[in-house]
Amino acid sequence: MRVYDIIYKKREGKKLSKEEIDFLIEGYTKGEIPDYQMSSWAMAVFFKGMDREEIGNLTEAMVDSGDRIDLSPIEGVKVDKHSTGGVGDTTTLVLAPLVAACGAPVAKMSGRGLGHTGGTLDKLEAISGFNISLTREDFINNVNENKIAVAGQTGDLAPADKKLYALRDVTATVDSIPLIASSIMSKKIASGADSIVLDVKTGNGAFMKEYEGSVQLAKTMVEIGKEVGRRTVAVVSDMDQPLGFAVGNSLEVEEAILTLKGEGPADLTELSLTLGSHMLVLSGVTKDADEGREILERAISDGSGLAKFKEMANIQGGNGEVIDNIDLLPKAKNNLEVRSKKEGYVQKIVAEDVGISAMLLGAGRETKESEIDLAAGIKLAKKVGDKVDSGETIATLYYNESAKVDEAKDKLLGAYQIGDKKPALNPLIYEVIK
Length: 434
Ligand code: URA
Ligand code: CA
Fold this sequence. Notes:
The protein is of the alpha/beta class and about 425 residues long. Helices cover about 45% and strands about 15% of the residues. The radius of gyration is 22 Å and the shape is globular.
């Protein structure tokens, strides 16, 4: 087999066989196929697409490139939740304890933030002492005993994807449905969950900005999940503005605590309840998503979700007292109110630019090696549809390091599009695909 022929075949829009896909992924993982051939192939896939069978085979080849985590020592149906990436997306911090409090085992492997997107591990480290590097044994024991563990990935999961994703990132081949679907699902399958709830973002802050593309991506992933025997549900949700008000690690922990107390932002609360209700159905706690929602609402009003957050923090070495006293979270020395230069209604808040602004303040990493400032971030004061006067505060920036504050402020101002008319509001949840 020659790589040239495989690239040529895909360029001509023909279907690749399982053997050809295996050959490509194996060769690339081992370093036998160079980046330039792989990028050419990725571009051919971008333009010509793949059919369902090819996408399934690509996913499997990427799973087989690395380890598979065995979660079978954990009792019950393990359900994982994954978001296709957002800005200020605080849902995992809310959902992990909330769903665990309702009796579903939560064995969550999370990642760190990069660029304009945040990562759950960084957020949890805003709780002093919180240990995200659990041994396999502790991870399993914690879930069996307390229903919850959130930790960094162990093992070498889908190394083919790690290489390919980095390559796609610099060759303008990220936003391709076959490539995104196989990338996400290979990691989810390798990490061992029995069932998966996907939060597929759509809008300016998402990988797939167009609605049709997002739905297609969601359907593709649900089908792949089913094919490999993992029940999968996808919720298509809006990312035409950041979720909630807080963007930044310590600020998002605070927002999650508020949400678990029933005092959180409406959009974050609603999305958490929707995703959580499907998690409860897939894990067998209830048969019905509406009932799942009621169970979750009860866990908010009786405080059991919040108590589970505290328990998780304490068990993983963190200072659980932060749940009762948010002043114990890292706090930035400085803040700056960003004021609108115009009067009108907020039409849009370009989520990616808000993420970049937060990154410039120190909340995110420009490169994998950058240090982050857990206290830095942004609290939005206005969301889409809100009326703003000229000179009114639209957001507050929190920072310790002032070098890039002006740049961050300009980025944030640019993220807000303000117009004369009150805009029609997007739904938060577009569709649930099962
Ligand atoms: N997230 C991933 O893990 N992979 C993609 O391709 C896009 C988003
Ligand atoms: Ca948020």
